[in-house]
Specification:
101 residues; alpha+beta; 3 helices
Amino acid sequence: MQQLHLGPDPVRHVSLVATWPPRSPGTTLNETDTTLVMDLTSILWIGIGLGSGVFALNVLWQRYVTKTPRAMQSGGSFLMFGLLMLAFALFSIAIGLFTSM
């Protein structure tokens, strides 16, 4: 079961927790549950990684598939930028997963 921790609720002073898959009402978590708690930092890192991965694939797509004139005249800069963005995407997703553990 995965658990998404959304932070403390300022009104009731309890933590808001979203779990996946949803539990039936009245069940509680115990120590034997294998839950993945993802706080806002983890979600932010994974979101940044996914966004930069899409951008990197877009840059590489322009260079090698659609072959836009700007990408073709750039020499190797589109390739280098796309590969560095792809590496950043993978590292930021890994950081997001590491901070959720």
